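Exercise 7. Predict the joint structure of the components listed below.
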Amino acid sequence: MKLKGAQIVIETLIEQGTTTVFGYPGGQVIDIYDALYLAKDRINHIITAHEQGASHAADGYARATGKVGVVIATSGPGATNLVTGIATAYLDSIPIVAITGNVPNSLIGRDSFQEVDITGVTMPITKHNFLVKKVEDLAPTIREAFRIAKSGRPGPVLVDIPKDVQNALYEYEKAPVVEKTPVAEVDNALIEQAAQLIAESKKPYIYIGGGAITDDAGAEIMALADKIDAPIGCTMMGLSAVPTSNPRWLGMEGMHGHYASSIAQNEADLIITAGCRFSDRGTGNTKKYALNAKIIHIDIDASELNKNIKAELGISGSMKKVFAALTDAVEAVKHEEWSARIQELKEETEKLEKQDNTLTPFTAIDAIAEAAENANENIIVATDVGQHQMWTAQRYPFKESRTFISSGGLGTMGFGLGAAIGASTATGKKTVLVTGDGSFGMNLNELATAVTNQTPVIIFIMNNGVLGMVRQWQTLFYDKHYSNTTLERKTDFVKLAEAFGLNGYRAFNLAELKDVLKKAFAENGPVLIDCAIDCDAFVLPMLPPGGSIDDIIVDPSAM
Amino acid sequence: MERFVISILVNNHSGVLSRVSGMFTRRGFNIDTLTVGETESPEFSRITISIHGDKAICNQIVKQLEKMYDVKTVKVLKRDETVARELLLIKVKNSPESRQEIVSVVDIFHAKITDYSPEALVIEIRGSSTKINAFIELVQPYGIMEMCRTGLVALERGGNCLKDA
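Solution:
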């Protein structure tokens, strides 16, 4: 059947399993929006307040489900407003397809109204991008975009479509959902070598990143950990891959990792890493990183092996399969001494993290978890970027994979609200966005989107009146020169919430907080909580930037 | 620091060169020379890049290239199994005093004078990069007005072809 290019776009999205797209109309995508209008009973579109919010929503949709998220924007400013969202997805390996309209082919390159070379702009932050110049290439290109986005190490793909291509007629025939490109099988010799290294190890440590979630490898990780008696640590992106209640779980390591996780990693004689790129936030100074350990590095992306850290053994392949093969290849062992040491470290960590019964960042997060439990809600937790993000990463008890949505690699302040809307829309789950007054201020316009769609998002603002993470660095390393981090804003978040059409609550102490959380969980649509946090609460422990485990700060007053 | 010559077979359409060179910029890899042109098949272009670095950097470059959508094949060419050539066009000042000496250098290097005018000689020379460097050094004293190097092109010796790698 002959369809207009714009209809082919929408039919191909539907054919590829997209149920909701996020976006914003504009001059060069009117045709695509017309096609959406015609197909509105088969595909849902959510208009955000800003294209950036739409890009984060598509990202949140992808993170929460593993499906490809889709965002649509017009040419020029519409397209450039996606850039931060695309870069966020790129750095965290999240599969999204961004569709942009462009000026007609005949006007390209003439600095036409709202023209920008978006394939040029996004070249370094996409897995690949396409400018579709002919309507006959349209459906195959969009299918290829989906294949690229979800295959191997996932990532964003942009498809730029000039207006005349959207208008041209061409034959469309429905095609099946594209398959991921198969991952090469792992050479058994490498598994044998890895098994040998594991057999020689007395202090093994399993270290997982976001790849564990992408590859749904939680069960395989736990099985290997049990068989070789190893603790499991993770990067921030690896959070939720294994339930935090697992006795082997040490949680996040690195700059703001748990004490036990970072120290154990440094004492280990073998680190089995998977789906992680040894980012500087995880390793600190690479010259002093894990000097006692041999490293087995497993990643689906072969270019990650030996990129940041030299590994004893690199294995490129599916994490799920490699862990399963390793579990088969190794003998079950017990490491009494190592386990005792891990236990000791866990107890020290508990002491360091012990809270009294006052309102602190940790007790606030405990209260959220408790309220979710009481409301019998299986929630998703999203964050923005800063102190609140680290506190959430350190403290929240994650039960299921894909329930922690946070910008890791790019560290995008303003990510949270859009992402929370996307995650909640995709799953139907109640989503708590833990944010800060700084981050929230960046993209709070998306409150309008949450209200319109009655998205069940609880916006939990840890309000300390400062840009806390930068302030913490200024306190510790810049002689308390609080340059532009004391906000002194007069924003009343409760009134703001009301103005946007949702309820807002305030809490100054733990009792009030528990009370308002209960109310918030009882609501069906979006709701906001403004929670007072001390502006000098620190995220601890901390490995100073460029420092090593020897420089770990657990008590800043001792500095 | 070693010199590596990397041959890359890529899709022959617009934007591919900027994707490949952009990856080098973005990841902080330095390119010494870069050449690109159509191959025996109009579908593909061949990019030859020479770099200086250690083995680890070279491996990382290959892995990053292999990930790119438009890159079909990547191969690091082994020095002793490779024919590598560069072409230089160089314009040297012409004067009755220096002319004979320049002509001698040209002869010894099997170079060629391709344009002659009272003010200038345009000389063409091809060969390995070291040979070309040596030639430039020798004609330097006579006054180089301008020059243009192609960068390295290279093929493996014997029957091996990049497209089969």
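Discussion. Chain B has four helices and nine strands.
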